[in-house]
Amino acid sequence: MAPSAQVHQRNHSLLLLQKLLNQRDGASPLNLIIDSLEQSAAPLVREFINRAKIGKTKVVFVSLATVKKPPNVDIFVKARGKSLKALASEIISHYAAPAALKSNSKDTPVQKYLVIIDSLNPLACREPRLLPDFFKGVIGASASLVAVYHGDVPIILPKTFSEYEPHPLTLLTHLATTVFQVSSLYQAVEIKRAQSRSLQEPEWGLREGREGVLVGLNKGHEKEAPIAGMVIDMEMRRRSGRGVAAKFVLAGTAGITLLSDHPLFVAPQDTGAGNAEETADGEADTTFSLGLTDKQRKDREGIVLPYFDAQTDIGAGEGGRILYEMTWEDDFDDEEDEI
């Protein structure tokens, strides 16, 4: 890929993520964030909330696991123990009435809403079949949804759930217009180091396979604080059906950058003899000369190879034999000649 194309692709990916985080022009109505025990989705959720506050978008926070109202949240809805139908009705009740929207002049901007669900797991366990209708009722022209799903938390499905029905996570990833898979930057760096040394990749948490032990996000950060942060694996589905995928790093005050631009993930540039380029004469540009002098070139052209005469038709059954004329420097060995 040409440098100009790489720059264009880089800028396009960054602008697309900024558009999704700002929820500009209804870029993605349903955003699914998949996190784990090693990396919480909280930093990315805070980024959504802070940008909504700057854009004067009202934030409706639906709590299934959060006890206290987070900062910069306008409406806090407690959803534990409520059915999906009742929860959808309560969320919609906080939207501006349609009559009020019609009474406003055309110059008055329409109030936008950002609905955040801190955990979809309880809803997926309770009524997985009703999730599409729930999303359809909550999402509107002026409202978008950001929902968190804990990927490594077991889902206890109801007894009426058929084995032929798709898993709730499969259904959610199919419905979502954008999927964010978050992971620890520290763990991504450790995996890259293992790959560069052809070593087995380390595992954490449940994948580690050690009963009763969870190696979490803070493992090793005391010594390597500069690599603290999270990796965002984004996949956006456009209306045309074409998907756009990119990986980013969210590292607090450092902001958001592409994973490939992070200092610990930048591809090393070849230097020295390994980065040799051919000159106009066709010779490699190295620290030593590979060319031949005029005398060496003439001597090379005058050399007659020992198998040159074997290409001519000498006689029946003898074509292809090697002819070699011995000189005084050769040490003739009768026993070796017999072998």
Chain oligomer state: single chain
Structural class: alpha/beta
Low-confidence stretches: 270-280
What does the overall shape look like?
A: elongated
Distance between the first and last residues' Cα: 58 Å
Under CATH at level 1, the class stands as: Alpha Beta
What portion of residues is helical? 25-40%
| Element-by-element helix/strand order | HEHEEHHEHHEHEHEEEHH
Question: Beta-strand percentage?
Answer: 15-25%
Provide the gyration radius in Å.
33 Å
Count of discrete alpha- or pi-helical segments spanning 4 or more residues = 10
> Could you tell me the number of beta strands?
9
Pfam family, one: Elong_Iki1
Subcellular location: Cytoplasm; Nucleus
Keywords: Cytoplasm, Nucleus, tRNA processing
GO cellular component, one term: nucleus
List the helices and strands and how they pair.
Blueprint: H1 3-22, E1 30-35, H2 42-54, E2 58-63, E3 75-78, H3 84-93, H4 98-103, E4 113-117, H5 121-126, H6 131-138, E5 143-150, H7 168-175, E6 178-184, H8 185-196, E7 230-237, E8 243-250, E9 256-258, H9 294-301, H10 334-338
Parallel strand pairs: 1-5, 1-6, 2-3, 2-4, 4-5
Antiparallel strand pairs: 6-7, 7-8, 8-9
Fold and architecture overview:
It is found in: Cytoplasm; Nucleus. This is Elongator complex protein 5. Keywords: Cytoplasm, Nucleus, tRNA processing. By secondary structure, this protein is an alpha/beta fold. The chain has one domain (3-261): P-loop containing nucleotide triphosphate hydrolases (Rossmann fold). The protein is built from 10 helices and 9 strands. Strands 3-2-4-5-1-6-7-8-9 form a 9-stranded mixed beta sheet, with helices on both faces. Strand 7 and strand 8 form a beta hairpin. Helix 3 runs parallel beside helix 6. The longest helix is centred in the N-terminal third of the chain and has 20 residues, at 3-22.
